[in-house]
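DM from R.C. (forwarded with permission)

"hey, sorry to bug you on a friday — could you get me a structure for this? deadline for the figure draft is monday and I only need the backbone to look sensible"
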Amino acid sequence: MTEISERIQRLRHDIQRAALKYGRDPGSVRLLAVSKTKPPEAILAAYAAGQRLFGENYLQEALDKMTGLAALDIEWHFIGRIQSNKTRLIAESFSWVHGIDDIRQARRLSEQRPEKSPPLNLCLQINLSGEASKGGIEPEAAMDLAHEITALPRIALRGLMALPAPEADFEQQRAPFRRLRQLLEKLQSQGLKLDTLSMGMSDDLEAAIAEGASILRIGTALFGPR
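My reply, with the result:
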């Protein structure tokens, strides 16, 4: 698993270089290792290299990994589609949920978050392209939904996330990330205390960092091809 350690070191170098290039503190960009479909051994290799944030799409797979790796101080992020009959297990097991786009989901997570646990961190998913096949809400609906979510107990709306369509051109990669950053700034100007932009993957991480990403969701560049 030395390849994973080497990839993490390269990623950290790339993140630091890009952050400094665009006038940002490298420490303000967190690396979320997308470990879906990867075995616990791969997570252990990444953990040994200093990685602590891991993202999972599939709930049962994630719960099995959590059980086997319970002794480690891992911060688990749920990044998949949320099914209404699975919200209790998500609320009980994860530190972050990326991809909230429905007040009903948020209410269920709020009601089912254990009182003894810290607030569950949420990111509101924005559909920047208007593609019906993708989750998320239209940017115009973000303000009202964000205010509704922030009124709920035991959860904390932290920011926004998006999954733009892949682009090869750097400036075309930056454009949707810029729109997401501008939306976050608009919400902040209305008094919402948001601090997170969850955006950017293996092929567009520099463009995401240039536009203010605070969490990068990286799978292939860290674990290798699926």
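R.C.: lifesaver. Residues 32 and 217 are 5 Å apart (CA to CA).
me: no worries. The first strand starts at residue 30 and ends at 34.
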